[in-house]
Amino acid sequence: MDAALTVEIHPHLRGVDPGEWDAVVADGCPFFEHAFLAGLEQTQCVGPNTGWAPQYVLARRGGRLVGFLPLYLKADSYGEFIFDWAWADAAHRAGLPYYPKLVAAAPFSPVGGARFVLAPGEPPETRQALLDGARHLAERLGVSGLHLLFVDEAEAAFLTDAGLAIRHTHQFQWVNAGYRTFDDFLARFRSKRRNQIRRERRDLREAGVSIRVVEGEQITDAELAHAWRFYRSTVDKFFYGKRYLNRRFFQHLGKHFRKRILLVLAERDGEVIAGAFNVRKGDTLYGRYWGADEGVRNLHFEVCSYAGIEACIERGIQR
Prior knowledge:
alpha+beta; 12 strands; 21% strand
C-alpha cells in the first residue's frame, strides 16, 4: 500500500532540503528551484514588508516531499504582472475586500507553466491534495480569493473542473522552427522586414557596438555586477518602475544559480554599455531584465531580441 499523503504549510524554506526540493522540480520551471525561491527569502526580496509573504503548500508521502504549490499572501498586486487592479478597484467601490489574497506564482516572473509542482510519477490525487490545502489555508486566513497565475492548459482544465474561474491572457513567445542560422529565421519574413532587421544590426556594428553572449560558469562576477546595474537603472528610469530585487539577490544568483544564467552584453570601446539577463533551462530561454548606459538606436532590439534568438539557434534552444 502507498504511504499516506500529508499536506503542510511552510512560511519559509528554511529546513527544507534543497536536493529534495529540486528533485520535485526536476525539469520544471527554473524559477521554482530552491536556489531561486530561497534566495528571494534570504535577501529579503520576499517576506516581511515586501508584499510577498510565503505560504508554501507541501505534499509529503511517507515523509518524502512529492509536491508543492508556491503560495504567497499578498496585500497588493505588485510584482505579479497580471494586472488585476481593475478588479481590486471594482471590489473597493462595491464595498468588498480584495486584499489580502493568496497567489500561486513565481515572484516577479510572468512565466507560464505548472504551478502544482509534482515529483515525476505522482498521481493526480497529489495535485488535488495541494489544491485542497490551499483552499483550507484561504479559508483559515480569511482572504478574498485564491489566484493561480500563468497556469498551463492542463492545470486550467483541472482548476475549471474544481470550480475556479479562468481568466485568459496572452503572451508572445518565439519558437525555434528548426532554424540552423539567424538568416534561416529571417527567411520567414518579407523582404522589407528582413532587410530592416539586417540594417538595424549593421548600423550597430558600424556604430562600434559588438555583442557577446556568456553563459553559466563562463560568467564573471564583474559581468553579473553589470546585470544588476542595468536592472537597477532600467527600473529607476520609469515612474512606474519598482525595484523588487536587490544587489544581494543578484550576488546570491551568482553563487547558487549561475549555471542557469545567460547574459547578452553589448560593448563599445572596451566598455559594457548594455545587457540582457536571461535564464536558461533545458530547451527554454527566459528573457527577464535589460538595461543600457547609452541610448544607441536599435540597441534594445539587438540585446533583448535578435541576439537572444541567435543564441537560441546556435545552442538548439527551442523557445
